[in-house]
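Mods, move this if it's the wrong board.
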Amino acid sequence: MDTLKLNHTQIQAAVDQLTSQQDGVNRLLEMAMNSLMKAERSAYLEAATKGNKANGYRSVTGYGIGDSLSLQIPRDRLGSFKPTLLNVMKDQTDSLNELCFELYAKGLTTRDIESITETIYGQHLSKSQISRITSSLSEAMQAFRDRPLNEYYPILYLDATFVKTKRERVSSEAYYIALAVLPDMTREVIGIYNAPTESASFWDEICQDLKRRGLRQVDLFVTDNLTELDSTIEKHFNAAIQKCVLHLKRSILNKTKKQHRLEMASDLNAVFQLDNREDTKEALLKRAQDVSLKWRNYYPHLKRLEDGDWLSYYATYLDFEYEIRNMIYTTNWIERLNKAFKRTLKIRNSMPNVESVLTLLSKVAIDMNSSTYRHPVSRFQKSHLFK
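Not the wrong board. Structure tokens:
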């Protein structure tokens, strides 16, 4: 039979008629891709060495527009022919994998992702397939957590966020975050860790890991009042420690009767005069003693405000230039990061294991490092940080 020959106008009319039908675009894509691969094989065999020839087809499924495509991959007898379009299909698969992980990292459940991928690509991905996709990227997230560090960071924030995680049963577990300020005053998440219980040995492991990855010097650690953390830091680094003033205030006010809270808050603000450029540690400690004497009959635990060694950890910010005190007297910066973690995790009632939490937190941290934290937070360099 003679080959049917159509002019450009006739071909355009046939294409228009086909694409106007329901799912016509996908059917046209199938025909075009199958024809291109068949033509590519013919050209390959013409240029190939003698003895090779066509050897049928194998069926695969590609991604179309709201539906899947049925494609026929041409084969040759020697098994050496690989259509160029296979690379395009591999790119499609890689892109779909990345999309699934991005959606998962933004807080969507596996069921949500199943629905989205089927609607967009016409490709049904099961919960187990999506789980395998997200798990396949956990190695990249592990590499992020294990990456080499700079030798020096002026400021390092340490804090914890709690996530419901399943081991033998579901319980809230702490995930500890290390957020560093670089010499150019940009920021970077440099550590994400999990431990079922907080202890001196756990903090020792974190410090050893930071040093193993290259960290040698930090000028200031900013932390909450985490168990045994201050003594462990002092063991590993010659650095000042600032404990979060806001956490201390909240802790005191939470243990104060409702009728006393307004006055107590005013007294605590008088102790920590954050807007007083001329304030000193000695003056702060004296004001704290006065507050203790005023309230300790009602609240005996406030007697600790008279302990200069203990309270000095909350007054370290006064050793630094006034211009940066508002960024070091509290762990607010890292708490903003914790809020980003919560937004990602809030849809899920609990996480299936520790690794899934670490993977998601790592992805959020990478996004923050490449966007929010790449902008300097201050013009001050190291020489301007200290009095």
